[in-house]
Amino acid sequence: MTNSALLYEQSGPVGWINLNRPNEMNAINLQMLDEFEEILPRIANDDAVKVIVLTGKGRAFCAGADLKEILNSARLQPGEADFIDRLTGRVLNVLRDFPKPVIAALNGITMAGGLETAMCADIVVAADSARIGDAHANYGVYPGAGGAAVLPRIIPLNVAKFLLFTGSTLSAEEMKIYGFVNQVVDLNSLRAETQRIAELIAEKSPIALQRMKTVANETGSKALHDALEHEQVLFRRHMRSYDAMEGLNAFSEKRRPQFKGY
């Protein structure tokens, strides 16, 4: 087996990033951060990739950060980026604002930093066997990459507090009820169903999706009037794009549009 902490493969218009530390439940280590920092800009600039999927090898999606490496990073020199600086600033924030749609395919245990990684996805598809939780409290650790700050923006506040305070996990079906998971499938169908959803998205105009994502991501921190104004500004800009005209022409000509992403 390769020593890479991430395995990347492309299936049609979909780029799959596989967390590849199955014996460590895909815990995030410095090597994985290095590889994320290298691969994400490359995928962002690859026009052949329209959607990316994050998933894990083995029985876990990701059980969180490698705590040994977090301890070691505390010994860095002042001003040097530590583990959490790199995880949040160079990986998770990049995923959250990625210019292409991001899908998390949760194949198993998803906890702590794994949960925080999944929270960066635009869409979450989970195997029915997946267990999802925060778990920081079990080790006296405080979430530093969105567990307390972002989770209550996705699921009800009292459910977020339950996961944060108890360190418990919930099933994929339960997390679907609370709005964290979009779709629950059998583990054996996870890859195929996620690929199907990704290919459906990949058919759409890349520039339209990017603009939708920008407005949707920012709307929670804006007053309604400001969010609507932001949407209208991007709408007017979009209506001058090739893809907008191509979509309207294809509709009137009763054919499939051929989008170019500009």
Automatic annotation (TrEMBL):
<dbReference type="Pfam" id="PF00378">
    <property type="entry name" value="ECH_1"/>
</dbReference>
<dbReference type="InterPro" id="IPR014748">
    <property type="entry name" value="Enoyl-CoA_hydra_C"/>
</dbReference>
<protein>
    <submittedName>
        <fullName>Enoyl-CoA hydratase/isomerase family protein</fullName>
    </submittedName>
</protein>
<dbReference type="InterPro" id="IPR018376">
    <property type="entry name" value="Enoyl-CoA_hyd/isom_CS"/>
</dbReference>
<comment type="similarity">
    <text>Belongs to the enoyl-CoA hydratase/isomerase family.</text>
</comment>
<keyword id="KW-0456">Lyase</keyword>
<dbReference type="InterPro" id="IPR029045">
    <property type="entry name" value="ClpP/crotonase-like_dom_sf"/>
</dbReference>
<dbReference type="InterPro" id="IPR001753">
    <property type="entry name" value="Enoyl-CoA_hydra/iso"/>
</dbReference>
